[in-house]
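User: quick one, sequence for these tokens?
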């Protein structure tokens, strides 16, 4: 959310404070005010960044990309270190193609591993069976879409807590 602190009816500081009380979305304050006190106030009220006008469009794009990436990681609660993904007690070593749940290795088939990795690296993305089949098995694969459902069921049995 881009928010100018100098708005006509309500100042951006107050809006930032109200939004932060109910939402955890990236908030970038934009202002012509360059004083440290304004920057400190905005960041103290929960803004993720404070950008002074005039600003470079390329810098703005870079900042937005950084905030979106951080926000998406938080949404999915996914962290990446080298070739390993971590989420909710599950470690996925992409290079060795191994999965550890609560530090215990669990055997996964190739397609189960591919599905799990896809889901972890694409949080909050809704796909139907056809789209998953296309992404995991490939366009040229011959097969029944029911195989997607079966693999997801087996995957869930392995990773879900009772």
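Assistant:
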């Amino acid at each position: 959310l881009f928010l100018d602190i100098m708005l006509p009816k309500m100042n951006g500081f107050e809006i930032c404070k109200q939004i932060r009380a109910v939402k955890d979305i990236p908030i970038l304050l934009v202002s012509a005010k360059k004083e440290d006190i304004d920057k400190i106030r905005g960041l103290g009220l929960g803004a993720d960044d404070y950008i002074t006008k005039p600003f470079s469009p390329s810098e703005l794009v870079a900042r937005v990309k950084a905030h979106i990436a951080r926000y998406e990681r938080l949404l999915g609660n996914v962290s990446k270190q080298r070739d390993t993904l971590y989420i909710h007690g599950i470690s996925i070593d992409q290079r060795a193609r191994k999965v550890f749940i609560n530090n215990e290795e669990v055997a996964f088939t190739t397609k189960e591993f591919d599905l799990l990795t896809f889901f972890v690296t694409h949080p909050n993305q809704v796909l139907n069976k056809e789209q998953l089949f296309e992404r995991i098995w490939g366009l040229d694969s011959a097969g029944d879409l029911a195989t997607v459902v079966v693999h997801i069921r087996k995957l869930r049995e392995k990773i879900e807590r009772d």
